TrEMBL record:
Classification via SUPFAM superfamilies: HAD-like
Organism domain of life: Bacteria
Signal sequence extent: 1-29
Protein name in UniProt: Haloacid dehalogenase-like hydrolase
Keywords: Signal
Pfam families registered for this protein in UniProt: HAD
Amino acid sequence: MFVPRDIQTAARAVVVSLTIALTPAVALAQSDPLPSWNDTAPKAAIVEFVEKVSKEGSPDFVPEPERIAVFDNDGTLWVEHPMYVQLAFALDRVKAEAPSHPEWATTQPFQAVLEGDMKALAAAGEKGLVELIMATHAGMTVTQFQTIVTDWIANARDPRFKKPYTELVYQPMLELLAYLRANGFKTFIVSGGGVEFMRPWTEKVYGVPPEQVVGSSIKTKFAMKDGAPTLFRLPEVNFIDDKAGKPVGIQEHIGRKPIAAFGNSDGDLEMLQWTTLADGLQFGLIVHHTDAEREYAYDRKSEFGHLDLALDAAAINKWTIVDMKADWKQIFPGN
């Protein structure tokens, strides 16, 4: 089709004008490493910290091997209400294994699980929880447990959002993980959750490989079985990576002191203290759950993700507090 030259010229001018007009906006969007964060104080604090420690010549410059960032998982990277995801896994495992254990029908805390009696289950306390974990997480090889976890995480659905738990990760924190890695940080998960429960899926979901996951564990025994080397999971607690256990786990597994720590509860208090109360520039951040509409709102009185002492310590130690409702444009990917 013939188009007069003057029309071609005019059209070209319009395209060039639009390109020039849109370029700054496009460049700005591409240059924003944290697009799901509102332009509030927490985002500014994160960017300022990263720029200071990663810019050569800066008085606060930190060599790449020392740029260690540690993240809690439950409530910091993904949803932890109405209960911890691993607890939901344990409850499902009790129900799946119940036919092989008829005695569970009249034995607490298993009876409470099978009858859906959450009040009785809560009354069983930490002792009851340990019993559930030992019964559902041990008595098998490491490989068998990994398969069970992988299958469950692929098929389980959150009761409120009706989505896989791996889709209920926090988009702003995914961006933060990527931003830190792009600036020479090595990112670790340091969680009270079971290390073997997390390792099968953390690399796919967070970009954190299994060797960079620190968590609670049960004892494991090496044995030759039918001529093949195996690791067998025993019904005995090995290490609890929570509260004061987190700095110990960091030292034993990572061997370097972090310069940035991210948590959301009192279980992360000691990890934040260990990371930030030292010489040099460090960064501590607490995710405060304040958005009941898009996620949940809870802190000092919550059974899961209890945030009390750490919230007070944040003000004293000048840790950054993220108000999920005010500081995040979106909570989950795709929302």
